[in-house]
Amino acid sequence: MYSDFFSLNVRDLLKGFVVAVIGAALAWLAAAVNKPGFELGDFLTIDWVVLGKYALTAGLAYLSKNLFSTKDGKFLGSV
Fold first, then answer.
1. How far apart are CA 4 and CA 59, in angstroms?
2. Could you give the 3-state DSSP secondary structure of residue 4?
3. Cα–Cα distance measured from residue 39 to residue 53, given in angstroms and rounded to the nearest whole number
4. Within 13 Å of residue 44, how many CA atoms lie on the same side as its CB?
5. What is the pTM of this model?
6. More confident residue, 24 or 47
């Protein structure tokens, strides 16, 4: 069930939180693997500020998409 155009419901917020967590986890994994001279210990180093920025960006992107979608899931009411 989608929320009305220009509105969000609790389900949207919960899904936005899930998207934020998954987005941050994937960004952390990509950063650890793509580091030059990759070592197993790189998984233990976490830059919390950068991770928070990725999570906030992913969550806000999802909520923005839902905010501008109609009840039937069409973005900006498009066909």
1. 19
2. coil
3. 24
4. 3
5. 0.72
6. 24
